[in-house]
């Protein structure tokens, strides 16, 4: 996925390497090892005091995006287009998640990953707790009440047992994962638009191609058909 330079046409014009925004991000952070240069928080003084735990954790997370060389390039050189892409990501607006989303976008791109939206996962009703014995696995029950029953002419108190159940994975867990994917998608859309109108890339051309906004919907449609 490396960009080795412009391709010359017979008429002398230069052709840029066309990449979708996700591919461009992976090239910048994974291949070129671009640095995500995050601005310091507004309340941090020049003497270095005032660093909150949240800022420290964010900076530690950002270390995965520092320039560290790699087998795909020589020394610490980073392609200027990769630096422009990284700078665009670093400017993520607060309405889309700000610094946290910028770090997430960069980390996923550097790992070559797409957010896990839990494809194919279906919530199942299962016992809260199980036990294994010589007869196999059995659901754990608990006493939820007492009832009097007539047995062989005598009244007896009998415990009413019930098996507590839950959903695994919980529907909210799946919904949360898919909200996270949609947030990432909107962040990529913003980066794409910024790179399309910026005109600062020399050898890379970011196309309008985007990942599917809700891949689980297309999967559900294919299943139902």
Describe the SSE topology:
Blueprint: E1 7-8, E2 14-15, E3 17-19, H1 21-31, H2 53-62, H3 80-90, H4 98-111, E4 124-127, E5 130-133, E6 136-139, E7 142-151, E8 154-162, E9 165-168, H5 171-198, E10 204-206, H6 215-224
Parallel strand pairs: 3-10
Antiparallel strand pairs: 1-2, 4-9, 5-6, 7-8
Structural features, described:
The strands form five sheets. The chain has a two-stranded antiparallel ribbon with strand order 1-2. The chain has a two-stranded parallel sheet with strand order 3-10. The protein folds into two domains: 162 residues, no CATH class; 44 residues, no CATH class. Helix content is 37%, strand content 20%. It is rod-shaped, with a radius of gyration of 27 Å. It has 225 residues and is an alpha+beta fold. α1 crosses α4 and α4 packs across α5.
Note the main attributes of this structure:
225 residues; alpha+beta; 2 domains; two-stranded antiparallel ribbon; two-stranded parallel sheet; rod-shaped
How would you spell out the order of helices and strands? EEEHHHHEEEEEEHEH
Q: What's the mean pLDDT score?
A: 81
Total DSSP helices = 6
Largest sheet: 2 strands, antiparallel
Number of strands: 10
As a percent range, the share of helical residues equals 25-40%
Oligomeric state of the chains in view:
single chain
Unreliable spans: 4-12, 45-57, 63-72, 221-225
Shape: rod-shaped
Report the radius of gyration as a whole number of Å. 27 Å
